[in-house]
Amino acid sequence: MQAPAKRVSVVHAEKTAIVSFAQRDGNEPRNSWLDSMFIVVANVVGVGVLGLAHAFAMLGWLWGILALAITLGGSLYSGLLMTRMKGRVPTALVYADLGHAAYGNLGHAFITLFGYTYMTGICLSYQLTASLFLKELTNGVCFVSCATMVAAFVLPLAQYRNFTEMTSMAVVGAVSIVVPVLLIIVEVAWHGRFQAVETEWVPSTTDFQAATVACMDVIFAMAGHVFFVEIMSEMTDPSSFRHSLYCATSFLSWVYFTIAIVGYYCVGTSVLNPITQNLASVLVRRWCSAFVLSHIIVAYVMAVMVLARNMESVLCLAPHEDSAHATLSQRLSWLALTSSIVCLGFLVSNVLPFVNDLLGFVGAMSGVTTTFVFPFLLAPVLLYDELSKRHRIALYAVALGSSAIAVLGVVCAVQRMSNSYETRRPFSC
Q1: What is the C-alpha radius of gyration for the chain, rounded to an integer number of angstroms?
Q2: Which range of residues forms the domain containing residue 187?
Q3: What is the pLDDT of residue 155?
Q4: Count H helices, E strands: the chain?
Q5: 235-260: burial string, b at 16+ Cβ within 10 Å, e else
Q6: What is the Cα–Cα distance from 142 to 167, expressed in whole angstroms?
Q7: Which residues make Cβ contacts (< 8 Å) with residue 49, sequence separation at least 6?
Q8: Burial letters for 365-401: b for 16+ Cβ neighbours within 10 Å, e otherwise?
Q9: Is residue 340 part of a domain?
Q10: Nearest to 219 by CA among 84, 368, 339, 107
């Protein structure tokens, strides 16, 4: 009887002289494109969607619509490029493997650095935002207590070891974001009927720093490409991932534009981030908090799983096993890794208790690079014979422009974070 295959990345395979390194967790991959669509939605849609109306208030109608449309279109095209590159490098199991195939060890190192930064950053932001929404749901329980409850709830769920085991959870995560969006739209639209609000096509009072951070919030709302290669690696037919992207992007476009336009139109320049703070009904606000919390928990668990799996391949230098085939020692090491990630999230969430600027920093630092820089640098190399010279030059130009935006975003986000830090003491309620 043939032993179950194990998941081994390209670089680890080279180190251990394994010839056939395109192996996966446990049995053969069995996710369909529909399963992957729910996983993409659960990963990509997060608390960022609740900040889009605020981003529109900072950018105005013109720049807000342009920023969101360009981000959605660019994110879709970037994902399609990654799907084609995965077809060219079928042995790639993680994002960094594409970098290794294109630029060798240097490409692998850069993508690993920014990929880990992104995954760590979103784990921290998920811990923070989940704690804040739990505080809202529990009518003002101490933030430290809420953060403790979130960590205690996430850790057992984080013992899942691949996306295939989490498809049902992904469906719950995807659906749980639809309900609060609908509640928010109805609530703000109803109250917007009875009060005049001010909106602008081009903002007159927003400074450059605030506008830049708002752009980073929009970009962060479409980040998540760092997971795409791993999602495709667990699919029966990775090439069908393009169907997942088309459906997921269509859904995201409807959700994002609806909540951004309705929220800004009905609330105006006073719209907050997250928009749930503008809801007049306490009951509606708590229901929204409950569903958003459910969605964030699912996304948090998936992010912890991916980060722990990548850390395991580096620290343990051993093939990854799925839950069904893991030994006791492997389960204990996995528990140690996931506990470390969740504990780090707990500590940082109590030191940096402000959502908007942290999301802007993560979006600028790694969201831009993993979504709009690396795919556009890798494609001209891995898809060289499929792309014209002009096409390759255009991709390099997009990567260069995105890099400049990322640097600018990081500078502005750090400045705003330093200002926000003075407004609240660490480990306070």
Answers
A1: 21
A2: 31-419
A3: 93
A4: 15, 0
A5: beebebbbbbbebbbebbbebbbbbb
A6: 33
A7: 177, 181, 221, 255, 256, 259
A8: bbbbbbbbbbbbbbbbbbbeeebeeeebeebeebbee
A9: yes
A10: 368
Which of 180-184, 194-198, 352-356, 423-427 has the largest mean confidence? 180-184
Two tokens at 326?
């893991």
**Bridge partners of residue 235, in order along the sequence:** 31
Tokens of 34: 């529909």
Does a structural domain hold residue 365? yes
pTM given for the model: 0.85
CA distances from 115 to 39, 247, 273 (A): 18, 25, 26
Instruction: Judge contact between 18 and 104, C-beta under 8 A.
Output: no
Instruction: Name the domain count of the chain.
Output: 1
Q: Where are the alpha helices (DSSP H) in 89-158?
A: 95-137, 143-157
Name the token pair of 350.
């109590």
CATH code of residue 344: 1.20.1740.10
DSSP bridge pairs for 7: 320
Taking a C-beta distance cutoff of 8 angstroms, is the pair 85, 329 a contact? no
Is 408 part of a structural domain of the chain?
yes
Q: What is the mean pLDDT of residues 346-372?
A: 74
Question: Residue 63: inside a domain, yes or no?
Answer: yes
- In whole angstroms, give the CA distance from residue 341 to residue 158: 10
Surface-to-core class of residue 157, CB atoms within 10 Å of its CB (0-12 exposed, 13-18 middle, 19+ buried): middle
